[in-house]
Amino acid sequence: MVERAMALGREAESMIRALALISAEEGHLTRLYLTPEHRLAADLVRRWMAEAGLDVSEDALGTVRGRLAPESDGRNSVQRLLIGSHIDTVIDAGAYDGALGVIAGILAVREVMKKHGRMPFGIDVLAFGDEEGSRFPATLLCSQAVAGRFDPAALQVESVDGVKLEDALRAYGKDPAEIPAAAYEPGEAAAYVELHIEQGPVLEQADEALGVVTAIASQSRHSVTVVGEAGHAGTVPMNLRHDALTAAAEIALAVEALAQRNADDFMVATIGKLSLSPGASNVIPARVVFTVDLRSQTDARRIEAMNWLREEILAIATKRHVTAWIERTHEAAARPCDPALQSGFTAAIGGRDGKSAIHLPSGAGHDGQAVGAMCPIGMLFVRCRGGISHNPAEFTSVRDMGLAVAALIKFIESFDPARLGRRRADD
Ligand SMILES: [Zn+2]
Prior knowledge:
This protein is of the alpha/beta class. The chain has helices at 2-20, 36-51, 99-116, 141-146, 165-171, 202-206, 244-261, 299-319, 339-350, 368-371, 398-413, and strands at 55-58, 64-68, 80-86, 122-128, 189-197, 210-216, 218-227, 268-270, 274-277, 287-296, 323-332, 335-336, 358-362, 377-382. Strands 1, 2, 3, 4, 5, 6, 12, 13 and 14 form a nine-stranded mixed beta sheet that branches.
C-alpha cells in the first residue's frame, strides 16, 4: 500500500512539474485566468483526463470537466461526486496550490476506475480557472457558475490589463450567453470535495501529512481610522498629546489579544497595512489608517469579536483623547464542511490504528465556498513545507502527495450519497 502511494506521489509530482512549466514568465510561475497560459494548462489537464478514461468537456467560463458516468443511468444513479480545484495561480506562484487538487482528482478517479470500473454514482473532476483573482477583481466565478450562482454583472469587471471579462471570455473562444448551462441541475451534485495544500504550518507542527478541514473560515476586513492632533515632537509634553499612532498601537495589541482569546475557534487577526500622516520624524502623528483582517471558524464568534473590538476602539480613543472608528470593507460567511464528508476523510486518513485525524479550518478561501451554495462540501489538507504558499518556495513531498491521493481513493470508494444530510441549497 505504501509502495502504491509512493508511486502515485511520484506521478503527481511529475504532473505538478509539467503544469508548472506553463507560465507567462520564464523561471517564475504566473498563470492567470483566460490567458494563453490558461489555455495551455487546460489543454494539458484535458489530455490527462482523457488518458485517465474520463469524458472531457469545458464550460463557458473555461472550467474543464472530466466525467465518469455512474454504473447505470437509472433513476437512483444520477447523483455525482464533484472533485475539484483550480489551475490559475497568483503572480510568481508555487507549483502545488490548486494544481495538486486537480491532479489528485484525476489520479484518484483513474485508480478507482481501474479497480472497480464505474461506481454507483457519477464522478466529475473539475479544473476551475479563476480561484486566485489575480487578473480580474473577482474570484470564484467558475465555481459560482457551476453552482448556478454566477452574477452576470461580473462580465463587466475589468482586468489589471484593462480587458473586460466579457471580452476576455470571447477572446478565449467562449460565449457568455452559455454560462447558465455550466450549472448542475438541482440535486445532481451530491457533494463537492477538494484536496489542497494547507498553506499554513499546522500539519507540519503536528507532524501529520494530512488533515480534515472543518470549515472555510468566516472572514471580514475592516478599515480603522484614528484621528489625533499633529504637534511639535520637542515642545508638546507627553500628557498633553493626541497621538494617533500610540492609540493605533494600543488598538493593534487589543486586536492581537482578541484573536488569542478566541484561539479555540481558530481566530486569527492581522493588521497588514498601516499609513500615518503627516509622517515626519519630528511631528506627532495626527492620523493613522490601518486594516484589520479577521477570520474565524464560525460567523457568530467573528461577529461577536468585531462587536467587542468596536467598543474597545472607542474606549481606547476616549482614554487617549483621539477619535477613532472602524468600518467593514469586506465580509464572507463561513462555509462549514459537511460532517459526513469530514467523517469520510477521517476514515480515509485514519488507517487501522484508530488514531484520529487532525481537524482544522481553512483560513484561506477556496472554490468550495462557492460550490457550497449548491451542495455539501468537504476538504482534505496536505502538509506543505514551512506552511509556505503563494511563493515559489511552496513544497509538498512526494510521500505526502501519495498519501493524499491514496486517501482520496479510499474516500471515493466508501462515498455514499445517501449518507449525506439532505441539505438544500442555502443561498
Ligand atoms: Zn488554491
